[in-house]
Amino acid sequence: MGGYMEFLYQLESIRNPFLSGIFRLFTLLGQEVVVLAVLCFFYWCYNKKLAYRISFGFFLSAILVQGLKITFRIPRPWIKDPLFKPVEDAINAATGYSFPSGHTQAATALYGTLALATKKRASKIMLFLVIAMVGLSRMYLGVHTPADVLTSFVITLATILLVYYFSNFELTKDKKVYLMIGIGVFAIALLIYCVTLYTNGTIELAYAADSCSAAAAGVGLAIGWYVESTYLNFNERACSNRMQVVKLLIGLTVTILLKEGLGFILGASITGKGVKYFLLVLWIMIGYPCIIKRFMNKA
Predict the structure, then answer these.
(1) Which of 218, 224, 273, 284 could form a Cys-Cys staple with 187, CB 3.0–4.6 A?
(2) pLDDT recorded at residue 206
(3) Separate counts of helices (H) and strands (E) for the chain
(4) Residue ranges per domain, the chain?
(5) How far apart, in whole angstroms, are the C-alpha atoms of residue 249 and residue 296?
(6) Which stretches make up the Phosphatidic acid phosphatase type 2/haloperoxidase domain (predicted)?
(7) Pairwise CA distance, residues 56 & 68, whole Å
(8) pTM above 0.85, yes or no
(9) What are the angstrom distances between the C-alpha of 238 and each of 227, 235, 242, 299?
(10) How far apart are CA 113 and CA 164, in angstroms?
């Protein structure tokens, strides 16, 4: 930890308003809301197959990262070393334990999957540079150590590589059922684990709620993917270009309102946050596609 903190102190020594502004922008690229917005664009409007790859990589790696967070329970750098000062306005978004980095996980899942999908070398390099800058931004802002960032990157990269490999196989209906159950069991295992740690007093409510959110979203993904790919099969590109823009704007607006509304109604409890993310993922995966298929693909 000492070596890691020395590196963070070196980054702290070069902070200035210009660099801080640049790294704030990069850290936004790893925010949950950005990942969800890009995912919705691909899923609803552009490339459903690629959206599934992003979804599986993002949610499966999130379950792994959240599991490691509540297992190791490593505090943030400024808690570990009270003399260290992070960038103040970065603290609010730094929820949960420090190890591994959630922003790095999200950025690697999204931009790493896009990098694997593109055939252009320049695009691959640019996308992996974005991942590197998101990880560096978390250290520059003082909310993560190199161990947090590198561990998250390796775990998520391995996850998206596995997803990319297995996505090339055709799945029968029976195999889809097995995959849905497998992902659901994986997510529920995290749910049981985090509830157990919370009830025995090992972790606090906020940390348990974050893990529960990831687990519930994973269950929502498994069910949503199975239902859509087996029964719904909406056409994401059937609309006119103008309707595509309208479709995306309506969908994102309702998604944001749903996210905020469910948060207000259900609260910040373990159950509340779990139900919120479960319903939110089902809306993205099944609810809005049903509306698209019924009303918008004819426009």
Answers:
(1) 218
(2) 86
(3) 13, 0
(4) 1-86+95-169, 170-299
(5) 13
(6) 49-164
(7) 18
(8) yes
(9) 20, 6, 12, 9
(10) 8
Q: Are 234 and 292 in contact (CB under 8 A)?
A: yes
Residues in the chain: 299
Q: Please tell me the number of Cα atoms within 13 Å of 218 on its side-chain side.
A: 29
Give 89-104 pLDDT, tens digit per residue: 888 877 789 999 999 9
Tokens 């409890």 locate to 269
What are the structure tokens assigned to 126, written together?
Answer: 């640019």
Q: What does the alpha-carbon distance between residue 272 and residue 262 come to, in Å, rounded to a whole number?
A: 8
Residue 204 CA from chain centroid, whole number: 22
Could you tell me the two tokens for 272?
């509340």
Beta carbons of 177 and 226 less than 8 angstroms apart: yes
At 4-57, the pLDDT tens digits run 889 999 999 999 999 999 999 999 999 988 999 999 999 999 999 999 999 999
